[in-house]
Sequence to fold (108 residues):
Amino acid sequence: MESNNINQRTERILASLDGLQRILAPDFFYTRLTGRMQHEMQPEKEKFFLLRPAFVTAALSLVLIINVFSLMNLDRQSAKMENMHSNKPATIESFADAYGMNSLSVYE
Fold:
C-alpha cells in the first residue's frame, strides 16, 4: 500500500514537470551582465588625500594650536598696552613706542 502511494506521488511530480517550458533571458542580458562584471572588477578610485580622517584630524589640531597660541599672545599684548596707558601724559616717545617707530629723527 505504501509503495503504491509513493509511486503515485512520484508520477504526479513527474507529470507536473512535463508542463514546464524553458525560460528565455531578456534581450541583451548577457551584454549587460558582462558589463556589470567588468565594472565590478575595476579597482575603486582612491579617496582624495585631504578627506582622509587622519589628515583632517591633524589639520584641525594644528588650527586649534595656532588659535590658542594667537589668543595667548593677544592677551600678553593687551596687558602690555594697559601698562603703557597708566596715567602718563602722552609724549612723542610714547607715541613712537606704541607704533614701533624709533624716537630718533630720520634726519639725524
Summary: Residues 2-41+49-98 form one domain. The helical segments are 2-18, 29-41, 53-84, 92-98. The mean pLDDT is 80. Residues 53-84 form the longest helix (32 residues).
